[in-house]
Amino acid sequence: MKIGLIDVDGHNWPNLCLMKLSACHKAHGDDVEWWMPEGRYDRVYKSRVFTDTYSKDTITVDNAGEVIKGGTGYGPGPNLPDEVEHTRPDYALYPQFSGTAYGFMTRGCPRNCGFCIVSKKEGRRSTHIADLSEFWDGQKEVKLLDANLLACPDHERLILQLAESGAWVDFTQGLDVRLITPDNVSLLNRVKTKMLHFAWDDPNTDLTGCFRRFSELTSIRDFRRRRVYVLTNYGSTHEQDLYRVNTLRDISGSNWFKDRGLWQDNSYEPRPGDIIYFDWACFVP
Ligand code: SF4
Q: pTM for the complete prediction?
């Protein structure tokens, strides 16, 4: 079979589904390439992670026997078949990312936040789906895509795998600060961490104590490796937004935070109607 692949979102971030489909088809002896309008294909896969807000699908395919669309950007749909899901991704598609292993060890999240699709799509439990060895084979860096690793009952065993790999690990999607314990932080302290992300999105939950506790337990002192996102103006009042921003500012001792890609000083105040993500780049325990 001749297979064409389309990464609708562009090529700035490797598309894991396409990489796994590519590896699987190649293992079955099929020819796989990026789709070209002048080509001829038995099957074309279009994959899209983001919705219209970030990437519109403007590609018409009229040179294939069948076209299969998938990914969060197209809405809920079937999961990849197990054989594909558990295939090591084909980095030949994205040679620029070959030094980094991208993957999931868990899927799902119990929080079911209103603005997030993860719980609806992957389930309201965080479940172990793969060991690190399924998608990592010695790369210097791991980009972990798990939505809520700490909510998985197996998370300590999985963190240990990350620690023992000796690879730099970027927890790209955030760790749930509410689930921090002395035991899991002591394991996290053994991981070569490139970046830890947290979030404080729910205006009705005061996470001040959780952030303080993490600050006391973590051995990561480099503020460039720790970050917190705060979603404002989503079901929150202006006062609630200011409370979270100012609390984080007070805990961190940081004079700087990020608004729409621009670093601002403390004189900035979120305005009613703004939707802002803040990076909190500094912890002071
Ligand atoms: S905690 Fe994070 S991953 Fe889970 S539902 Fe909320 S935003 Fe999504």
A: 0.86
